[in-house]
Amino acid sequence: MSSKLEILNALKLSALMNHPMPSIEVAPRLENLVGQFETNLNAVAGTLHKEGGIKALQAKVDELIAQGLQVISLVEGVTANREMPPTAHELKDIDYAVIPGEIGVAENGAIWVNNKNLGHRVTPFICENLILALPTNKIVPTLHQAAKEITLASGEFGVFIAGPSKTADIEQALVVGAHGACSSNVYLL
Fold first, then answer.
1. Which of 108, 114, 181, 183 is deepest in the core (most CB within 10 A)?
2. Where are the domains of the chain?
């Protein structure tokens, strides 16, 4: 018997028995979900806009357009100055992408988005700045609850977005916007 087989057989003999996954029974905090969401969104360098809904969002988009910025909107009822291009490569000069979020998670400030609402799956990552529109009634307490509400058909893409891109790889110094959106704003609808 080769030394490789001896090692593998020894590993088989020392393997632990299968055990069922533990049941985690932690009651979610249900009070003030919007407040929890805002606190955790701020912790990941995002900003929440609670007042004004779709009108406030359109006013912000109008302000950005007046500044000469390129804005694309995939949110129904919000008009921007750029249409979704046929190829993702044409998104390279988008300053702001306004996209709909499906589910917000209070415990971590993350928002679930699905490719059904993105145009191109690269949209939230290639834009300079990201604006997410989220219905207030779609904020859930925990990631476990959000996962129960998510469905993905074969070939679909979805992702939780928690604030703008960030990294602390170099000298453990946090850099926001290193490899994706430099800012993340969430408007509650």
1. 181
2. 31-188
Structure tokens given for 4: 């490789």
pLDDT: which is higher, 145 or 155: 145
CATH of domain 31-188: 3.40.50.10420
**Is 80 exceeded by the pLDDT of residue 102?**
yes
Average pLDDT, the chain: 90
Lookup result for tokens 């400030």:
109
Angle, vertex CA 66, rays to CA 61 and CA 71, nearest 5? 45
Q: What is the pLDDT of residues 7-51, one digit of tens each?
A: 988 888 887 778 888 887 878 888 899 999 999 999 998 999 999
Which residue(s) pair with 89 in the sheet? none
Q: Which amino acid is at 116?
A: K
Q: Is 182 helix (H, G, I), strand (E, B) or coil?
A: coil
- Select from 160, 159, 177 the least CA-distant residue to 168: 177
For 183, the token pair is 């800012």
